[in-house]
Amino acid sequence: MSDASAASDVLSGQAQGQLKSIVERIERLEEDKAAVMADLKEVYSEAKGTGFDVKIIRKVVRLRKQDRAKRQEEEAILDLYLTAIGET
């Protein structure tokens, strides 16, 4: 029994079509993701070339994604812990 005939025994024609469509959509999204990643790399390189600290920019971007109250709570806990171990 070939793989194709085994697949048609397990999956209906409609299910096969849906599966193929899903796989193709994922492949397109992976291509888009690769293009976006290349664009991000280029922007970070531009920032570095302009003299900005890329590590800090990444941190700023990550912090801006967070809820402000959650971020403030984390900063307060961080300050508390640093004070507790004599780092401030």
Rg measurement, Å? 24 Å
- SSE string: HHHH
Count the DSSP helices.
4
Structural class, by secondary structure, is: mainly alpha
Question: What are its keywords?
Answer:
single chain; 88 residues; mainly alpha; 4 helices
Structure description:
With about 90 residues, this protein is mainly α. The protein contains 4 helices and no strands. It has helices spanning about 5-10, 15-50, 55-65, 70-85. It is elongated, with a radius of gyration of 24 Å. The N and C termini lie far apart (about 70 Å).
Architecture blueprint of SSEs:
Blueprint: H1 3-10, H2 13-50, H3 54-65, H4 68-84
Summarize it:
The protein has 88 residues and is mostly helical. The protein is built from four helices and no strands. The chain has helices at 3-10, 13-50, 54-65, 68-84.
